[in-house]
From TrEMBL:
PANTHER family: OTORAPLIN. InterPro entries: OTOR (IPR042801), Otoraplin_SH3 (IPR035554), SH3-like_dom_sf (IPR036028), SH3_domain (IPR001452). Keywords: SH3 domain, Signal. Pfam families: SH3_2 (PF07653). The keyword Nucleus does not apply. It comes from Umbra pygmaea (Eastern mudminnow). It comes from the Eukaryota. Residues 1-23 form the signal peptide. The keyword Metal-binding does not apply. This is SH3 domain-containing protein.
Length: 135
């Protein structure tokens, strides 16, 4: 029993140290599962265009501007009563500073223009706490 308590205390200490040294903050989960093109969510599912502006409310999200192109890497499976969010990265010559930054955005503010994967070729995987951390 003592060894278990010691292990738990050590794990909590490491987690706290990680948060202090990296500045990472784990935020509330937006969903328990997501759809991706592959197990690592490393390939884009689609390319979408922003239909309206969106200002990120916290560091889990990305701000998008109307007309921006966005690579969609995952689609969160909505919980009952929750919004539908997708994860992606902005692509635009005008907003180079945002390129490569991944974050969530409301799916109803974008229109998919090109699908790289058919729905039958995608994988549904559980989300992890690390999917929702902020630096």
């Amino acid at each position: 029993m003592m060894n278990l308590q010691l292990c738990l205390a050590l794990l909590l200490s490491i987690g706290s140290l990680y948060q202090i040294t990296t500045g990472a903050v784990f935020m509330d989960k937006l969903a328990n599962s997501k759809t991706c093109a592959d197990e690592e969510c490393s390939y884009a599912l689609s390319l979408a265009i922003a239909l309206d502006d969106f200002t990120a409310p916290d560091c889990r999200f990305i701000s998008i501007k109307k007309g921006q192109m966005i690579y969609v890497y995952s689609k969160l499976t909505p919980e009952e009563g929750a919004g539908v969010f997708w994860s992606g990265s902005v692509y635009s010559e005008r907003y180079v500073d945002q390129m490569g930054v991944l974050g969530y955005f409301p799916s109803n503010l974008v229109k998919e223009t090109t699908k790289f994967k058919k729905n039958t070729d995608t994988v549904k995987i559980p989300t992890a706490d690390v999917d929702f951390y902020c630096l």
